[in-house]
Structure formats: structure tokens, C-alpha cells
Amino acid sequence: MITKKMGDALNEQVNKEFYSAYLYLAMSAWFHNKGLDGFANWMRIQFQEEQAHALRFYDFLIERDFEVELLAIDRPTNTWESPLDAFKAVLEHEQYITGRINMLSDIAIEQKDHATRSMLVWFVDEQVEEEKNANDIINQLKLIGDNGYGLLMLDKELALRVFVAPTFGQGPAA
Length: 174
Fold this sequence. Notes:
Shape: elongated
Number of strands: 0
Number of helices: 5
Order of helices and strands: HHHHH
Largest sheet: none
Helix content: over 70%
Structural class: mainly alpha
Distance between the termini: 31 Å
Strand content: under 5%
């Protein structure tokens, strides 16, 4: 059995994960409009990952016999000054999500909810990877600066990313 406090917090996380997906889809569209289809692909894959994360929280609530309540999803920002600005926004958002996952872990510990705490370990590890990935691309974009050729090379690299469905409970997704 899951406590009301824990269940309500997990329901809110379902919303935050779907918002994340929505944000990355908006970023994907923005990159497509800028002619950076590789960046758009990277964001679209990110969109798919966030949907999978939301569904993991959703399924967990159902497994724990807690009523799922889908909340309204806020409208995301849909313009950025530059690719660097967009990825700084990605990092900032992922840091926010890390804070939320940590807060959920704190509630699980407080409530002595070992099942939820166990499920959240995957997300704790995943957030380390999410922040690292965003930071790596930020560092590359800083090195590239105003070099259009460098930007196109990174765009081609990001076009190679493919969605791999996460296997929850077996370490972070690749």
C-alpha cells in the first residue's frame, strides 16, 4: 500500500514527466524550423524517453493500487535564442527534475515506503545521465561558438541518436 502523500507526489511526477516530453517536443519543432534536423532528432528521442518515464510512474501507481490522476500539462516555451540557449534550458530543466526525484526519494524514506524507494533508484541514476548528456552538448556548443561548420558536424552526430526503450530496474537506459 502506498500512502496518500507518496501517491499524490507520484501523480504530480507523472505530470512533470509529460511536461518534460512536451517541452522536448517543442524544442524538436524549434530545431526543425532552424534547419537543424539532427538536433531535432535528439530532442524527439528525449520526448520519447520522457513519455516512457511518465508511463513508468503511471504504471507504478496502478501496481500499488493508487488512483492515477492526470493533471493539466502547462504550455512549454517554444523559442530560444540559440542551440546553446536551448541546451542550457535542457540542463536547467533536468536539474529541476533531479530535485523532484530527490524529493520523491525523501518522501519514500520518510514514509518507510521501500517499494517506491526501490523504484526511484533507477530514476536517481537516470538523472545523473540526463544532466551529463546536456552538459556534454553545452560544452561542445561552447567550443563550436559561431562556427557554422562545427554546428553542422554536431547536428550530424545528434542525428544518429535512436530511441531505446528503458528497462526499468536494470540500470539507466542507454
